[in-house]
Amino acid sequence: MYVCVCFVSLSSPIYSEPLTPPSNPSLSPGNSPMREGPFEKPTLPAPSEWSEFLRASNSKVERELAQLKMSDPEQRELYEAARLVQTAFHKYKGRPLREQQEVATAVIQRCYRKYKQLTWIALKYALYKKMTQAAILIQSKFRSYHEQKKFQQSRRAAVLIQQCYRSYRKFGRLRPHRRAATAAKVHSLLTKRQDQAAHKIMRFLRRCRHRYSPTATSLPTGHAIHPLPETLLIQM
Question: Which range of residues forms the domain containing residue 58?
Fold first, then answer.
């Protein structure tokens, strides 16, 4: 919809005519007594003439203004056209601002994503560094514990070896005395056993000698007396 705005100027045909009413030439300022003679003193028109002149001029202006009035449909159409013009102007004026806002929004979003990415990378690096330090600490503690345990085992083994070696040396020094004591014990044991055996044999021979002595009064028939061996008699 195109809106055509008309500006009325004073040079238009509406205002081309003089504002004085032509119907009564006697009331015009040109017909006043001021122009009767060139050397006469000018006189002002009467107030009644001026009031009639102004009234006629006002009535003509009112008629012309009444002709400029628009009807309701025309006013409505003009209002709609003005509203459309204002809307289009606001859109045209707000387009650069909206474009700037879109560009600023895109820049802010890109910067925020970059900041978030860098923050996440920094956080991951900090966590990785912390985990690495923890792993190094655990490894060093485990190595020190393992070395300490190994050293304690070696120390216990060395102490045990030293104890065994000392006991071995001590036993080697005391071995001759132990051998002599052991031999003495064995000899005494053998002597004791021999003595016990000899006593048993002597008791047995005494019994036999007492049983087969010549003083025995009665002997069973058919039994001969056998003499004892000389060795046994000598031992007795």
Answer: 13-69
